[in-house]
Amino acid sequence: MLALCAGGAWAGDAAQWEKFGAEVPAGPVVPLAQALADPAAHQGQSRVFSGRVVDVCQKKGCWVMLEDAGHGARVLLGDHDFYVPKDVRGPAQVHGVLSKVTLSPSAREHTAKETSPGAEVPTIEYRIVADGVQVQADDPGA
Q: What is the pTM for the complete model shown?
């Protein structure tokens, strides 16, 4: 599906998406950095967020880290409703609900075991519980 990014850029016909979970709906796309600049305006509401997948759960592929302009959120793939390949990376759009979560010491320890080596696990993180994720597929001609 095509979507209009909030910054005015189009996900054009040339974009090929690898899709996981439910279809990401067409419509406005909120860059993650914009959402986290004013989280109260976006928390608790279903939205399409954009950014770049920079890490994936290395145990099962049950979450991805989405980053945009130095801001990040962990994207949970429903309640383990679907998974992504552990090596998927790149520009992405996710459809879900944003929240702010304080991680207990045991949750931080659990997450650290699933995170790529060297990646930090914060005490407080933003999360998106997503029902659909799409990652821009590699261009074989590039």
A: 0.83
